[in-house]
Amino acid sequence: MRNMVPLFFLVLVVSCAEDRPAPVKNAGPVYVADSTKHRLMKIIQGGWVSADYIDTLYKYNSPVLANKGIPVLQLVFDTARFIGDTMYNGFHRDSYSASEQFDVVFKNENGSVKMIPRPYPSIEFKLDEVKYRITDHDTTLILVAAGKEYSFRKVFSVFPEYGKVRLNALDVFVDGWLSCYEWKKEDLSGKISFDKTGIVSGFGKYQRYSVKTKADYPESELDEITLYNDTAGKTFAFEIIGDVRTGMVNSPFPLFLQLFDLKDPGNGMEITRGKLEYELRGRGIYTVTVTDSN
Fold first, then answer.
1. Contact 206, 229 (CB under 8 A)
2. Distance CA 113, CA 129 (A)
3. Of 65, 46, 44, 47, whose CA–CA distance to 56 is shortest?
4. Which residues are 273's β-sheet partners?
5. d(CA 290, CA 174)
6. For residues 240 and 95, what is the distance between their CA atoms, to the nearest angstrom?
7. Which residue blocks in the chain are alpha helix, DSSP H?
8. How far apart are CA 179 and CA 137, in angstroms?
């Protein structure tokens, strides 16, 4: 009987050992090497605007029309807002739509480093991955959402901040678009300039401008521009008549920029266009280019 206890104990130990799951072999490190993170950060650093938005704006000359049907209009990645394995998307967050409020996490999946979007609770559609494509010194950022790819073009690498005005990527692009045209008064006297930093010159008391880049549903689907100085400002509905691409350097001012009063009935009712206040003549002075200065 004395030898049966150790024998029983040995059988129990062997039996427990057989029931225990085999240890899982680690296929590799779960962390992402700093060198890989820094390489990816350098690629995606800066402000990006939807390629569909850019193409539609050039075609129809309407910032509001250009955003229809595009769930994500802009991405902004700043290496100063990188913590651990997470790159934060955006600054001035209140200027972003709900679908743009997500960050990117660098993950090592089966030995391949991926940039995985981490959405805020406001996101209503599935975000899969952020990728990039480099061709002939041009970089395209690609957001994969619900299996569909959305392309983005870089509009700046260095973050712009002009005076007290902090611009997001969409602001920078639309201001740059408007600054590419030379404008004059209706009688072709006097030069009026809208530069890419949001400054307007030659337009009376006004010193700065801001273009609405998204529709304010349901109140207004008008394209609007606000002209202002340090003490006052006024918002106009605007329309550019003529094909922007015909307004190149040697053309005799074929474009018209019309500014209208706004009729706002209040109570959330639709804002409509009022009487014509200004009509400027214009032409393109150079073509907007989107560059990667990295």
1. yes
2. 11
3. 65
4. 262
5. 12
6. 25
7. 4-19, 34-44, 51-60, 63-66, 169-179
8. 25
Under DSSP, the state recorded for 242 is: S
Strand order in the sheet with 224-228: 200-201, 191-194, 181-184, 272-284, 255-263, 233-241, 224-228, 208-211
Assess contact for 238 and 181: CB atoms under 8 A. Answer: no
pLDDT digits (tens, 9 = 90+) for 231-287: 889 999 999 987 555 544 455 677 889 999 998 877 767 888 999 999 998 887 754
Q: Whole-structure pTM over 0.90, yes or no?
A: no
Q: Give me the half-sphere count of Cα atoms (radius 13 Å) on the Cβ side of residue 230.
A: 2
- Where does the chain show beta strands of DSSP type E? 46-50, 74-83, 86-89, 102-109, 112-119, 127-135, 138-145, 148-156, 161-162, 165-166, 181-184, 191-194, 200-201, 208-211, 224-228, 233-241, 255-263, 272-284
Q: What is the pLDDT of residues 29-45, one digit of tens each?
A: 456 787 888 888 888 88
DSSP three-state, residue 18: helix
- Name beta bridge partners: 240: 257
What does the block give as tokens for 4?
Answer: 């049966």
Amino acid at 104: V
Q: Are 44 and 87 in contact (CB under 8 A)?
A: yes
Paired sense of beta strands 200-201 and 191-194, if any: antiparallel
